[in-house]
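Support request from a user on the community tier.

User writes: "When I paste my structure tokens into the form, the page sometimes reloads and wipes my input. The last time it worked, I copied everything first. Here is what I submitted, just in case something in the input itself triggers the reload:"
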């Protein structure tokens, strides 16, 4: 009896001690263990007892992605293929055919062959549809068919592709491919250098430094750094790029997190390349992350004039964490802040609206900060340029046109209908714009506005309530009006459409390198930047 009493006394004491120590350390760990156990048993029961056959891998993939969708778009599970793609993006090196390829359901589309790389040497062009790789039909391949083009350097791959309704074949000899962070640099005029930085991989600062040194040797006394379309990349490379223009020991970016070890300040650590050369940085709606660190920091330090359009607004930092079987999870670990103290994150993923959508900070809630010289700058999402040019609102119509691939397809048709073209004097006309609108109609281009969705939902409700006879005529009239408005919306975005078409068409004839040469002669951003840099007083006025 004594033993029993002792046991009954001792066990509660031990459990209490465990409970006290655990809760004192962190309550979350018990909750995590509990939820994992619940999920494990549920997952097992579903796979064992569900009425139809289940695919355990697909179920788990859906479960993981659905869980992460509730966080933000950047916290992502990465399978082995994703990990390899991230490695290529960060290093800029891989072995393959040397072309951007888009995977579709039953074919591979060559988006852009890189000049003088294997695909280009084999005669492949943008718009070619690869339907067969070796003996494997792309339509029958269940995995990512883009992997069929990969292989060891020096090995060959035979491809069958369609071009202009004709079937052709080619043999491609794979090679080492280097994707440059700086795909182009040159002189705009006798005193102005132009550097395009397209990504922040491990070579970004070294390639940018080399380009600037070369341009200075050619006589450059002022610089344009083009970050348009640059989605970002490695944070330390952003710090190193800033370091080219500002002294050693300068604060560039601060990261803040709930995890103390991720609360860091990043300072320049090297001697600068040139702290005095006049500098303009170009940004647009697709300049994100590391691009915003560079442009925002140089703006805060009054070291450069920022020209273009408000940047994307990604103020979140991710870090990959190794998982099992070669997989990773890329986790948002912190927010970053420019030297003035502003965070440029545009969307709030943690306080969503009633539809579960991330919300943008309202302009009246922007916070004001000051640059080194006392100029006003604001948070609220993205870097606001000092000089705004060709601001294009990211609307339903612009998104739909870009996502439809019809600009790409029109450029393909245009290229084969016009085998020779004077790129230096190339300019699309009103007739070309009309042709594109006809092309949209012929390819059944459609898009649905939020207004249409709301009206249809209301109409569906009226049917359930037996009211549709009373409102059908009004509903039809509203939908008809919306269709006319959508046609007018295409006309309203004429400049955006023509610019996008022009860029795609120029690349067909002169590769991406030729596009940058075309920019120097025709691009409004570069013309304005050259004008600003050409007048010392004008340049300094923007920074005061």
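"...and here is what came back when it finally went through:"
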């Amino acid at each position: 009896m004594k033993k029993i009493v002792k046991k009954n006394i001792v066990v509660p004491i031990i459990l209490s001690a465990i409970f006290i120590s655990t809760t004192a350390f962190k309550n979350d760990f018990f909750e995590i263990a509990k939820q994992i156990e619940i999920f494990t048993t549920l997952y097992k029961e579903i796979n064992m007892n569900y009425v139809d056959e289940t695919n355990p891998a697909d179920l788990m993939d859906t479960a993981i992605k659905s869980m992460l969708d509730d966080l933000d778009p950047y916290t992502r599970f990465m399978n082995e293929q994703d990990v390899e793609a991230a490695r290529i993006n960060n290093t800029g090196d891989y072995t393959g055919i040397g072309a951007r390829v888009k995977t579709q359901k039953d074919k591979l589309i060559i988006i852009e062959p890189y000049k003088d790389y294997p695909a280009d040497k084999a005669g492949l062009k943008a718009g070619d549809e690869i339907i067969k790789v070796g003996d494997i039909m792309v339509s029958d391949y269940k995995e990512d068919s883009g992997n069929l083009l990969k292989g060891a350097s020096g090995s060959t791959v035979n491809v069958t592709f369609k071009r202009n309704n004709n079937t052709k074949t080619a043999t491609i000899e794979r090679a080492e491919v280097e994707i440059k962070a700086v795909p182009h640099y040159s002189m705009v005029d006798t005193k102005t250098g132009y550097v395009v930085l397209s990504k922040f991989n491990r070579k970004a600062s070294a390639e940018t430094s080399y380009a600037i040194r070369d341009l200075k040797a050619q006589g450059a006394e002022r610089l344009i750094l083009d970050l348009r379309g640059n989605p970002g990349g490695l944070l330390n490379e952003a710090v190193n790029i800033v370091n080219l223009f500002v002294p050693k020991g300068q604060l560039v970016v601060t990261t803040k997190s709930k995890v103390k070890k991720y609360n860091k300040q990043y300072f320049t650590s090297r001697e600068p390349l040139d702290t005095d050369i006049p500098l303009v940085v170009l940004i647009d709606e697709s300049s994100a992350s590391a691009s915003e660190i560079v442009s925002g920091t140089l703006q805060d330090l009054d070291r450069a004039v920022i020209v273009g359009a408000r940047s994307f607004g990604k103020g979140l930092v991710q870090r990959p964490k190794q998982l099992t079987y070669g997989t990773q999870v890329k986790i948002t670990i912190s927010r970053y802040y420019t030297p003035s103290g502003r965070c440029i994150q545009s969307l709030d993923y943690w306080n969503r609206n009633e539809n579960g959508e991330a919300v943008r900070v309202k302009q009246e809630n922007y916070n004001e900060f000051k640059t080194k010289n006392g100029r006003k700058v604001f948070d609220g999402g993205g870097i606001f340029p000092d000089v705004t040019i060709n601001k294009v609102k990211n609307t339903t119509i612009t998104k739909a046109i870009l996502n439809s691939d019809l600009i790409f397809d029109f450029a393909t048709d245009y290229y084969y209908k016009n085998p020779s073209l004077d790129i230096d004097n190339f300019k699309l006309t009103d007739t070309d714009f009309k042709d594109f609108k006809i092309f949209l109609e012929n390819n059944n281009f459609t898009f649905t506005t939020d207004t249409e969705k709301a009206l249809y939902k209301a109409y569906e409700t009226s049917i359930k309530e037996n009211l549709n006879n009373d409102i059908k005529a009004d509903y039809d009239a509203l939908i008809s009006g919306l269709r006319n408005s959508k046609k007018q919306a295409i006309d309203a975005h004429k400049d955006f459409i023509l610019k996008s078409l022009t860029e795609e068409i120029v690349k067909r004839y002169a590769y991406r390198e030729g596009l940058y040469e075309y920019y120097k002669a025709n691009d409004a951003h570069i013309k304005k930047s050259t004008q600003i840099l050409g007048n010392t007083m004008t340049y300094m006025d923007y920074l005061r």
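Agent notes: The reload is a front-end session timeout and is unrelated to the input. The chain has four domains: 93-178, 184-389, 396-445+493-522, 450-491. Residues 184-389 form a domain with the 2-enoyl-CoA Hydratase; Chain A, domain 1 fold (CATH 3.90.226.10). Escalated to web team.
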